[in-house]
Amino acid sequence: MPLMPIAKVLPGYKPQAEDTSIDADVLMFQLLRQFSSTQKTQRFQSFNQSVRRMALLRIKKQFPNASTAEHIQEYVKQKLLSLTGAIAVDKLPKLPEKLIILDPISLAEKISKILLILDIHYMVDGSVASSLLGEERSTQDLDLVIDIQPFNLSPFVAAMSEEFYIDAGAVSEAIDRKSSFNAIHLLSLEKVDFFVLPYDDFSLSKFSRRQLYTIADEPKNEIYIYSPEDIVLQKLSWYKMGRMQSQKQWRDVLGVLKLQGSQLDFAYLKQWAEFLKLTSLLTQALRESGLE
Q1: Residues 6 or more apart whose Cβ sits within 8 Å of residue 213
Q2: Buried b (16+ CB within 10 A) or exposed e, 124-159
Q3: In angstroms, how far is CA 180 from the centroid of its own chain?
Q4: Rounded Cα gap, residues 198 and 242, in angstroms
Q5: What's the pLDDT tens digit per position in 5-57?
Q6: Contact in structure between 15 and 24 (CB atoms under 8 Å)
């Protein structure tokens, strides 16, 4: 068995987990850098599908005498009711007779096709973006930022309603208020959070820098996601708003910084960190990721 190479890192470097050595952590990101975007996508999809299958299996073991319909109903309770801002279960149409296991990337594929036809610009947000650009992890739902206008309302709701539960009133209100709304995929019960693009300087900067990310090669398929710099800044903002309690957000930040490394636009990061009053957090993150 080959020996673990000894890593050379700057003082302050922090592994992703307490039970991971610095040498193992550095090696992990060296190996991750060798993966193509499609390979990283496949890893993320496989992991998230496995998490969902395990959740359903636990329910079947917990309720061995229950019917398939009852298993699905319990899955709905545990999945949707645990999510902040989730649609009430009693508002959903009839539950599917058989549950389809989807992951957030598969969901993003479906929705991106709808948005492309309607010429509604979007980008994938949250933990899906940070997983593709850094260290992958499980996530319960898909976050999308969309630049949707009042005239898009009817065609958007009509197109989404073919496969999703969606409330036209909630969409209309979110467009007016530049806020958010939800949709539920009816066959998988996966939730999507849509955030209507606000027109402040940072939001517009992030949206203008969104990038196409290849999720499949044959046939080629791409989705729009955050740039690495912007997902770092966004997650630092969320971390700060959460009173710096969310270790998941912090780990996501370090994962992106470690994987992207010298390819990052450090001038852009520091400029917006100063504007957003995130300079001290960014400095700490750069130190713990071995970049400064």
Answers
A1: 37, 41, 124, 132, 222, 223, 224, 225
A2: bbbbbbbbbbbbbbbbbbbbbbbbbeeebeeebbeb
A3: 16
A4: 21
A5: 788 899 999 999 999 999 999 999 999 999 999 999 999 999 999 999 999 99
A6: yes
How many angstroms separate the CA atoms of 289 and 292, rounded? 8
Same domain, 200 and 275: no
Contact 165, 93 (CB under 8 A): yes
Q: Locate 42 and state its tokens.
A: 């496949």
Say which range, 12-16, 86-90, 253-257, has the weakest mean pLDDT. Answer: 86-90
Q: Per the structure block, which two tokens stand in for 68?
A: 């398939």
pLDDT tens track for 168-221? 999 999 999 999 999 999 999 899 999 999 999 999 999 999 999 999 998 889
Question: Rounded to the nearest 10 degrees, how much is the dihedral formed by the CA atoms of 64, 66, 71, 74?
Answer: -100
Residue 2 has what DSSP assignment?
Answer: P
Q: Based on the domain organization, do 245 and 146 belong to the same domain?
A: no
CATH number of the domain where residue 94 is located: 3.30.460.10
- Which single residue is written with the structure tokens 């791409």? 222
Please check whether residues 180 and 239 belong to one and the same domain. Answer: no
Domain-ending residue, one of 226, 245, 260: 226
pTM assigned to the model: 0.92
Q: What share of the chain is helix, strand, coil (3-state, %, to 5)?
A: 55, 15, 35
**122 and 239: one domain?**
no
Burial string for 249-280 (b: 16+ CB within 10 Å, else e) reads: bbbbbbbbbbbbeeebeeeebbebbeebebee
Domain that holds residue 43: 22-226
- Write down the residue that tokens 């206008």 correspond to: 149
